[in-house]
Design brief:
Helices cover 2% and strands 64% of the residues. It is mostly beta strands.
Length: 506
C-alpha cells in the first residue's frame, strides 16, 4: 500500500455503510498515513470526504520526530494531512519542547501546528504562554500573539507578539513589552532576547528601571550575565530619589554597581523647589547605591542655578552629604561676585548653597564699575551663604583685600576712598550684598587712599582675572536640552564607553 494512502492497522471491530461511504472502527483503533501513526479508542472514516474522526485517548506520533497525545476528539484530513485534536489537555512533544493546550491543529506533512485557545510551552528551563500561536517544528520556530508570557528562572517577559526560535533560544518581540527580573524591569516596543546568552536589544521607547533609577533611550543593548547595558540615542536617566535627570546620546550602565556613564552632549538637571540646577560637561559618571550616591562631570564642566553659575574642568556632586567639589581652575559667579581658586568645595543645605571653601589661590572679586573691583585674596577662603546670598568671607593665610568706601551705602553714593590691607587672616561680613564690617588679624598692614589718588598699579591684586564674559547663561543649557531629540542616533551596535572617574582631591 502506498504511504500516501490511509492504512488501518488496528481495531477489534470494523463495519461499514456502503451508501454513506463510512467505515466504523472500535477499540484499539490504529491508522498509518504518510509515515505518521494514529491511535484512538474508536473512529469513523468518511471515505468520500477523506476524513477520519477519532474519539478517546488520541495518540499521534512519528518516529524520532513528534508525539501528539491527550485529546478526546480528532479530526484528520487525509488530503492535507492535518490533524485537529481537542480535549482537556492536548500535548505536543518533540526534542525541543512540550506544548499543552485544549485545541491544536497540526499538519503532519509540513509539521506546522497552531492553537487559538491558549497554550503553555515548556522548552528547557523556559515556559511560555499565549492565547494564539504557531509552531514550525522543522525550524523550531514559534509565533505567539496576545497575552504572551515567557518565564525563565531569572526573569518574566510580558508582550503582545513574540517569535521564538528554539534552536538559538532567541525571542523577537514587538508591541508593548515588559521584562521583569530581580535586578530591574525593562520596557520597550521592539527588540530581541537570547535566553541562552542572556543578551538582548531593546528599542522604540526602551527604558530600563532599577530601584529609583530609570534609563531610557532609542536603543538599549543589554548583557544580563555581565550586568552591562549600552544605550544609544536620546538617553534620559531619571533618579527620583535625588530628583535629577541626565540626558545624552551614548550611555553605559553597570547593573551590579549601579553606575551609569553618559556621553555625547550630556546634560544634567536637578529640580530644587522653585529653582533648577543645570550641569553640562563632556562626560557624566553617575552612581546610586546605598553607600555611594554621586554625579561626576568632566571635562569642560558648566553649572547654572538661579543664584550662582560656575565653570571648571571636573565636578563631583555627592548626594549623601550634599556637597559639590570643583576641580581644575574652578570659577563661581554669585550675583556680582566672582570667586576663583585651585579647588572648591560647596556645602548645600536644603539644596541651596550654604558654604563654599576655596583651597589655594583663593580670590573673590566684586565689580563696582568697569575696571573697578572690591577684591579679597588669600591661601584659603571660607564663604558663608544664606539663601544663596553671600553673608561672610573668612580668609586664612596671606590675606589681602582692596575695599572701596562710600560716604553712605546708597547705590548713588560716590566712592570716596580705598582701603588696601595685607594680613595673616581677615573676615568680612556682608549685608544685602554690601560690606557690613571687616576684621583683620595677624599683623595687619593697611593703606588708605582717596579714590582719585589710588595708584593704577595698586588697583588689582595678583591673581585677578575678571571673566564674567565666560559665565554660563541658562540659554546654553536649554539649547542642549531642546535639540537632544534632533541629534542622530548612532548606528553602531557596540560602542566602547570610557570608564574614567574623577578622583577626589584631598
Amino acid at each position: 500500500m502506498s504511504q500516501n494512502n490511509l492504512e488501518v492497522i488496528g481495531g477489534e471491530k470494523m463495519y461499514g455503510d456502503e451508501v454513506k461511504k463510512l467505515t466504523y472502527i472500535v477499540k484499539n483503533v490504529g491508522f498509518k498515513h504518510n509515515g505518521v501513526t494514529i491511535y484512538c479508542d474508536s473512529a469513523i472514516r468518511k471515505i468520500k470526504e477523506g476524513i477520519v474522526e477519532g474519539f478517546g485517548h488520541i495518540y499521534i506520533f512519528q518516529q524520532d520526530t513528534f508525539t501528539l497525545s491527550g485529546g478526546e476528539y480528532l479530526l484528520y484530513e487525509e488530503a492535507t494531512k492535518t490533524a485537529t485534536v481537542t480535549g482537556k489537555e492536548v500535548i505536543l512533544n518533540d526534542a525541543e519542547m512540550t506544548l499543552v493546550t485544549t485545541a491544536l491543529q497540526y499538519n503532519t506533512a509540513n509539521q506546522i501546528g497552531s492553537y487559538h485557545n491558549k497554550a503553555n510551552i515548556l522548552s528547557g528551563e523556559n515556559t511560555l504562554k499565549s492565547k494564539h500561536g504557531y509552531y514550525q517544528r522543522r525550524t523550531n520556530v514559534f509565533n505567539f500573539k496576545q497575552d504572551v508570557v515567557l518565564t525563565s528562572p531569572e526573569y518574566v517577559m510580558y508582550c503582545d507578539t513574540l517569535d521564538y526560535f528554539a534552536a538559538t533560544k532567541t525571542a523577537y518581540f514587538q508591541g508593548p513589552t515588559r521584562i521583569v527580573s530581580k535586578e530591574n524591569t525593562i520596557k520597550c516596543n521592539y527588540g530581541w532576547y537570547n535566553t541562552a546568552t542572556e543578551k538582548a536589544q531593546f528599542s522604540k521607547e526602551a527604558v530600563l528601571m532599577s530601584d529609583s533609577t530609570a534609563l531610557s533611550a532609542d536603543s538599549l543593548l543589554y548583557d544580563k550575565k555581565k550586568g552591562i547595558g549600552n544605550a544609544f540615542g536620546n538617553i534620559r536617566m531619571y533618579d527620583s530619589s535625588n530628583q535629577i535627570e541626565v540626558y545624552g546620546q551614548k550611555g553605559l550602565y553597570l547593573v551590579k554597581s549601579k553606575e551609569t556613564i553618559i556621553t555625547d552632549n550630556p546634560l544634567a538637571i536637578q529640580y530644587i523647589d522653585n529653582d533648577t540646577m543645570y550641569v553640562m560637561a563632556d562626560t557624566f559618571y553617575y552612581v546610586n547605591d546605598s553607600l555611594k550616591r554621586e554625579l561626576q562631570a568632566y571635562p569642560g564642566t558648566m553649572i547654572s542655578q538661579k543664584e550662582f553659575q560656575g565653570k571648571c574642568d571636573s565636578m563631583i556632586y555627592r548626594f549623601n552629604d550634599s556637597t559639590i567639589s570643583l576641580y581644575g581652575q574652578p570659577i563661581l559667579w554669585n550675583k556680582n561676585n566672582q570667586i576663583t581658586g585651585d579647588t572648591m568645595h560647596i556645602a548645600l543645605k536644603n539644596k541651596k548653597m550654604h558654604s563654599l571653601t576655596v583651597m589655594d589661590n583663593a580670590f573673590l572679586a566684586s565689580e563696582l564699575k568697569p575696571n573697578t573691583f572690591n577684591q579679597i585674596a588669600g591661601k584659603t577662603m571660607f564663604n558663608k551663604f544664606n539663601n544663596n546670598e553671600l553673608v561672610s568671607v573668612l580668609v586664612d593665610g596671606n590675606a589681602e583685600s582692596i575695599y572701596y568706601m562710600r560716604n553712605n551705602e546708597t547705590d548713588s553714593a560716590e566712592y570716596t576712598g580705598v582701603n588696601k590691607v595685607v594680613c595673616g587672616k581677615m573676615k568680612i561680613n556682608f549685608d544685602s550684598a554690601k560690606v557690613d564690617d571687616i576684621c583683620f588679624y595677624s599683623k595687619p598692614e593697611s593703606k588708605m587712599y582717596p579714590v582719585n589718588q589710588f595708584p593704577e598699579s595698586e588697583k588689582h591684586l595678583k591673581g585677578l582675572n575678571w571673566q564674567v564674559s565666560n559665565k554660563p547663561v541658562i540659554a546654553q543649557f536649554l539649547e542642549r536640552k531642546k535639540h537632544r531629540n534632533q541629534l542622530s542616533t548612532p548606528k553602531s551596535v557596540v560602542h566602547k564607553q570610557s570608564s574614567k572617574k574623577v578622583k577626589s582631591k584631598k
